[in-house]
Specification:
heterodimer; A: mainly beta; four-stranded antiparallel β-sheet; globular; B: mainly beta
Chain lengths: ~110, ~110
């Protein structure tokens, strides 16, 4: 158990629909990261939060993507007007409280856009 | 971010040691060398990390070259459960980067029974 829960684990949607993924880390006092992973590739960084502040966003995060972390606890990643190219695994990760350098990943939310 | 180079794939036999190489010739002084692995249908899992000295933990050993331009992850006795994609990552510990990880494509390790 990595202390990161993601929901839903799988989502199938039609092109043009909006989807939202949720990440619940075990503790509020840490950084939270979102990554995207397509088949055969390593995870790609999307964005990260320090408490409720979104401190960095990748250029991969287009205007259709928005992430929030209200109150510095759970986080949501919303994709509006989904496209087939958005099909991927969306991974959430947390640091530990001491920020020792290790990231703990959830099992991911797999999105399929038809 | 400094880049790493790893072989696309490697094979090993069960119960034998495995040496997974990684080249990082453009490493900077503040980059830590991290290794993660990813089992099928799971998120990446931390394995080990180091800066200059060799490191050991319950999962593996990390051998870092004296010039820090390469490193080797050592699994002392491979098991079938070690079959995974292994990522070698340089992590800038500077605050401005958020200490995020930049993954490459990794090495797919196959363990034969």
């Amino acid at each position: 158990d990595t202390g990161v829960s993601q929901d839903p684990r799988h989502k199938i949607t039609k092109r043009g629909q909006n989807v939202t993924f949720r990440c619940d880390p075990i503790s509020e006092h840490n950084r939270l990261y979102w990554y995207r992973q397509t088949l055969g590739q390593g995870p790609e960084f999307l964005t990260y939060f320090q408490n409720e502040a979104q401190l960095e966003k990748s250029r991969l995060l287009s205007d259709r993507f928005s992430a929030e972390r209200p109150k510095g606890s759970f986080s949501t990643l919303e994709i509006q007007r989904t496209e087939q190219g958005d099909s991927a695994m969306y991974l959430c990760a947390r640091t530990d409280r001491a920020n020792t350098g290790e990231l703990f990943f959830g099992e991911g939310s797999r999105l399929t856009v038809l | 971010d400094a880049k790493t180079t790893q072989p696309n794939s490697m094979e090993s036999n069960e119960e034998e040691p495995v040496h997974l190489p990684c080249n990082h010739s453009t490493i900077s002084g503040t980059d830590y060398i991290h290794w993660y692995r990813q089992l099928p249908s799971q998120g990446p899992e931390y394995v080990i990390h180091g800066l200059t000295s060799n490191v050991n933990n319950r999962m593996a050993s990390l051998a870092i070259a004296e010039d820090r331009k390469s490193s080797t992850l050592i699994l002392h006795r491979a098991t079938l459960r070690d079959a995974a994609v292994y990522y070698c990552i340089l992590r800038d510990e500077g605050e401005t980067s958020g200490s995020r990880l930049t993954f490459g494509e990794g090495t797919q390790l196959t363990v034969n029974p």
